[in-house]
Here is the input.
Amino acid sequence: MRFSDLIDRQVVTESGEYLGRAFDLRAALRPGRLEVTGIVVARRGLLERLGIVQLRALRSHTRVGGDVVPWEAVVSVRGHRIVVRDDRS
Amino acid sequence: MKAIFQVALGILAAIGGFVDIGDLVFNVAAGAEFGFSLLWVVVVGVVGIIVYSEMCGRVAAVSKRAVFDAVRERLGFGVGLVALVAAQLVTFLTLAAEVGGIAIVLQLLSNLPFLALVPLAFIGLLAAIWFLEFEWIERLFGYAGLCLIVFVVAAIKLEPDWGSVAHGFVPQIDTGDPLVYLYFMVGLLGAAMTPYEVYFYSSGAIEEGWTPKDLGLNRLNTVIGYGLGGLLSFALMITAGALFLPQGIQPQLIGTVALGAEVPLGQVGLLLALVGILFAVGGAAIDTCFSFAYNLAQFFGWEWGKYRGPARAPRFTLAWLVLLVLACCVIATGIDPVMLTEYAVIFSAVALPLTYLPILLVANDRAYMREYANGRLANVFGVVYLVVILFVALAAIPLMLITNMGQG
Amino acid sequence: MSRPKALDLALGVLDHQLVDPDGRRCGKVDDLELEVTIGEPARVTAVLVGPRYWHARVRGPVGRLLARLGGGGGVKVAWDGVERVTSAVELARPASELGLGRGDDRFRPLIGRLPWA
Here is the structure.
């Protein structure tokens, strides 16, 4: 699967609650490995959608201003959405 | 001591290189149309280019990213590509206008037919780029461009009403012809903040290997270099306001621009003016040409840089070569360079936000900039100018159409 | 054990410059390949470079046209070929070994034929 496939998908819970769009993937850089630890979810306004205003990044390489859904909470990435558990922590 | 000398030389080159064909055309036209009342707009434009360039220079020195690296990283591939296409079209137009300007000045100097001078201009520019090192190009064209100081002398010699001149620095709007006035505002701002200057400055900073230690130099170059360069723009407008406005002359020709120096100062003035224009515009042409190649290479990730040598950066080299040839072909069709300049400046104004915003974003990003990210002052200026640039971008084409390119 | 560095992929990796150990610029990160396993952290397995991968970034006919204009080639660089992620993505092996920078290679002979190149 490619990054470009996952990005921009709607993120919904199992019970159908719409959380927003997958804006980016939070990852952990380890020696030799880059692991995806979460999905950065945000309700995108027009400006974000156009890519004109990325959610502001203030700390090293990560964004602020979006929710991060832990990857463990992901239930399914099939189809056009990402489904996550209701009780994501 | 030697360091100060070097810095001073660099600043001199920056001053001499400040004016390009867009500044020439718009400052003189503005002076001929509205006298001194648009001088304040030039100040706004000069401060704008200082703000933008300083940020780009800082971003380049600290994060080693040039403008189109930042554009792609911040806007992504899709939107970034739109910015690239817009920037490249505008850069191409600008280069063609500059080559046209060079050919015209050569014609005024030599009396040879125009069509023979286009290849001459091409060969001259190509030879300079190919055989001279960067530093020498900037020096040669920058110092010779300082001949434009003749317009400062001319402005003084024409004895304008200095009270009116001073009043011109106060923000105002000409209520007699507000739309045309606004059109010239847009044109002057677009000419002062021409995008290719920043692309070139930013890439040049990386070519020179700037590090955070050079941030002071960056500030000196931009503030003093461009600040004093702005004096040349004032001189052009004041000369035009003092000479052309009373006579009702609207300069449509570059030769008429040079008259601004000839009338008060005679043949010497004319010669200095023509030489100054030739080298200022020539230097601008080289910068523009490289900007095109820089943008393309930076967006797509190719190897780039004049210092790398043609063999190490083949696609980059090909890009500026092909563009130079194309620009010369366009001019050889006989299209009016002054008209081309006006279009280039107006469209530059429209394209400006697309490359300004990513730089403002990157300049604030602490992952890239560490402790050198924008402070509050830089951000106040940065955001104010973002608003100015957006305004100008939105108003440019409507004003151009409504006022029929300033004809009213 | 040192803490792993947190990194947002679109912000910190995607569209960034690739640089080989000789300092040679050899493309941008056009896309990333992920190995997705539900229940385990997904891993980035490769960096995707080349016009072939532009179609996924710009959907529709424009993307297809671009990919064709670019020559349609592309290279997959396994993630273990990445040495370091700073503001650029620094590779562990030279571009030529990884099949990168071929665009410049293709045009080098042409430039070489110019006098005084």
